[in-house]
Design brief:
Length: about 230
């Protein structure tokens, strides 16, 4: 639970800017991950593209080892489960499409970096937490992705030391606000940094049973409460 929040700044009339910090919490490192200095054309990376050498993300992941970089250059790919500690970098916003079934991207190994993708087409079922991206392991960075046509956006579920930064998240346009899922949901997680995200036309950013969390420089609009704590 959150204690002694030092600052909460709301600008209403359809737009919410948030800067929330727990004064009693230990300092949260801004960048606890080893991230490549160059975003593109990283030496010795595994390349996925419509022209190869890897034609699918699954094939590249099968050959990857922990610590490898997988660079995805354009194209559209099906739902993805990542079970190795790799860096995935999208060049020119490659698309991962869930086809309207379940969760689109599941990050379930520690130390993953997931950056630069368009994620779309989750399932519609709240009972199974159908999401654009679900984070289920520690020390993960989710950065500079665009999510749309998803029920829940980014769901951090029982994972610690996670950064969610610079993402654009919107929901399923066919649903009214009460039926939409949360743009970002944090559940039983610690040491979380949520910053510089644009969350719009989703229900809320939800922080449930989370400790040592920082929300900073996010823009939330056309939602329900903006941020919901429990």
């Amino acid at each position: 639970m959150y204690k002694k929040f030092t600052s909460i700044f709301f600008v209403l009339s359809g737009l919410v800017l948030l800067n929330i910090t727990g004064s009693s919490a230990a300092p949260l490192p801004d960048e606890p991950f080893r991230i490549p200095n160059s975003q593109f054309l990283i030496p010795d990376s595994l390349i996925v593209s419509p022209n190869g050498p890897y034609l699918t993300l699954d094939a590249a992941l099968a050959d990857a080892s922990d610590g490898d970089v997988i660079e995805v250059r354009g194209g559209t790919y099906p739902a993805l489960v990542v079970e190795k500690s790799v860096t995935l970098i999208g060049v020119e916003a490659p698309i991962i499409d869930g086809g309207g079934q379940g969760t689109v991207v599941n990050l379930s190994a520690p130390g993953i970096v997931f950056r630069g993708f368009e994620v779309r087409g989750s399932g519609p079922n709240p009972d199974t937490d159908d999401s654009g991206i679900i984070v289920e392991a520690n020390d993960i960075l989710v950065e500079n992705n665009r999510l749309h046509d998803v029920l829940f956006g980014i769901f951090v579920a029982g994972a610690n030391n996670v950064i969610v930064r610079g993402n654009d998240v919107t929901g399923k346009t066919e649903y009214d606000l009460g039926r939409k899922g949360d743009g970002i949901r944090i559940w039983y997680s610690e040491n979380i940094l949520i910053e510089k995200n644009h969350v719009h036309e989703t229900r809320d950013i939800v922080m449930w049973y989370a400790a040592n969390a920082i929300l900073r420089d996010n823009v939330i609009e056309k939602g329900r409460y903006g941020v919901h704590f429990m």
